[in-house]
Design goal:
By secondary structure, the protein is mainly α. It is built from seven helices and two strands; from the N terminus they run αααβαααβα.
Length: 166
């Protein structure tokens, strides 16, 4: 039972209700939320399901390249995330790095990151400026009411409006 009175059904193989309480399942689901948002980034922002080839090798290559990019982005944005966290610690809206901006910045500086024609410290300074420039804002302790869109509206969005990062 959710705080709104709505019944939520969780599918699990942990069937012993005495050993695994509802509170434990809630905490477990909360821990899994970070993984679910990673899948969302991979599928929605990086378009992981839009493979460059049809062979097993091509699919694996695309998958591991996307995982590498997400890991690299999380490492490179740590300083900017800390800066934005400290900057907005007392604000109602918490700031964090906009993933679309950071993926685009990394894409634009990929050669410089690995080839090092530019000193890495000055390159990181430029990247951090990009990361901090257009942050996203998140309300604290909010419950988002999701509204269902029709299949027609969703199809129109993906055909005419949505612009993928890569």
């Amino acid at each position: 039972m959710l705080s709104t009175g709505e019944v939520e059904v969780l599918v699990t193989s942990l069937l012993d209700s005495e050993k695994y309480t509802i509170q434990m399942l809630k905490e477990l689901y909360h821990l899994r939320w970070g993984i679910e948002t990673l899948f969302s980034v991979l599928k929605e922002r990086l378009k992981l399901d839009n493979f460059t080839g049809k062979t097993v090798v091509a699919v694996r290559q695309d998958f591991f390249a996307a995982l590498f990019l997400v890991g690299l982005e999380s490492i490179l944005t740590q300083v900017a995330e800390l800066h934005l966290f400290n900057k907005s610690s007392l604000n109602e809206l918490r700031q964090s790095v906009n993933n679309m901006v950071s993926f685009n910045a990394i894409k634009n500086f990929m050669v410089e990151l690995f080839y090092h024609p530019t000193p890495i410290n000055s390159l990181m300074k430029v990247l951090n400026e990009w990361f901090i420039t257009d942050p996203t804002y998140r309300k604290r302790l909010r419950e988002v009411i999701r509204k269902k869109s029709s299949a027609r509206v969703s199809l129109n969005y993906y055909k005419r409006i949505y612009k993928p990062c890569f």
